[in-house]
Amino acid sequence: MNCQEAQEAILLSDNPADFTSNPELAKHVTECAACSEISLQLSRMQTAMATFPMPGSAEGKAATLKRVRSFEMRPRRLILHPMFLSAVAALIVVGVGLGIVIYNFDRPAPPTVVDRLIDWNAELADAPATQQSAVFSARAAVLQSEVHDASLSDDDRELASALLQHGNWLCVNTDPIDRAEKFSDLSDLILIRMHRAVLNNDEKAMQRLSLRYDQVVRAGIGGNLARMKANAAVSPENTKKLERIAKRNADQERKLQLLNDRASKALQKELKQALETSKKQGKNMRGQGRVF
Predict the structure, then answer these.
(1) Residue numbers of the domain that contains 26
(2) What total number of domains does the chain contain?
(3) I need a surface site. Which of 226, 227, 264, 285 has the fewest CB within 10 A?
C-alpha cells in the first residue's frame, strides 16, 4: 500500500485512528510518519468538531465533518500535510474559546487571478491555431502583473506561475501530442481547484471550473489528439506520451468520482459535466485501441 492509497482509506474511515479491520493500512501507518501524523491530526479534528456546539441540525454537523474529510491526493504529492491539519485544528480551538463558530462554506469566493489564469488557458485550448497568438498577447502582460502584485499563498503562487508558463509554452509549441500532454497537466491543476470548491461548497466556483475542465479536456487534449491522428503516424515516442495521457485521464476520472460521491447535490450537478467529459475522453482513447 502506498501513501495515496493509505490516505484515501484514512479519509473514508469512520474512525481515522482505528485500523484494526485493515492490517495492511495499519502496517503502512505504523511505518510512515507522514500518514501516521495525518491520521492522528484528523482524529483530533473529528473529535473536536463532533463535540463543540455547531449551528444547525445534526445533518449540518455531519455535512461539515464530511467536507473536512473530503480532501484528495494532489497529483504526485501528499495533500493532507500534518502542518495544514495542525493549523486547522488550532483555528477550531480558537473559535471554540471565543464562542464564535464561523462557516463560509455557502458563500462563494470571488474569482481570483488564479481563476482568471485558468480561464485564459482554457481560451487558448478552444482558440483556433491562427488566433492563439492574439488570445495570448491580449491578456498575458496584465495577468503577469496581477500575479506579481497579488497576495497569494505559496500553493496559489506556484499554481499561478505554472499557468503563466503554460500559456507561454503553448504559443511556441505546435506539436499536437506535446500540446495534448501539456493540457493534461493543466487539467490536473483545475482538478486541484475543484477539491477546494467541494471543501467550501462553492457552487459558482464549481460551475466555472467544471466548464473549464470540459474545455481543456475536450479541446486541449481531445482536439490535439484528433489533429495528431489526422496528420501523422503514431511513433513509438508518441505512443508513450499517449499512455501517460490515458493513465492521467483514468486517474482524474477516479478522483472526480470520489469528489462527486462526497459533494453536495448542488455540486454534484456541476461535477457531472466534468465527470462525463473525462469518461468520454477515456472511451475515445480506448476506442482507438489504446487500453491502459
Answers:
(1) 3-98
(2) 2
(3) 226
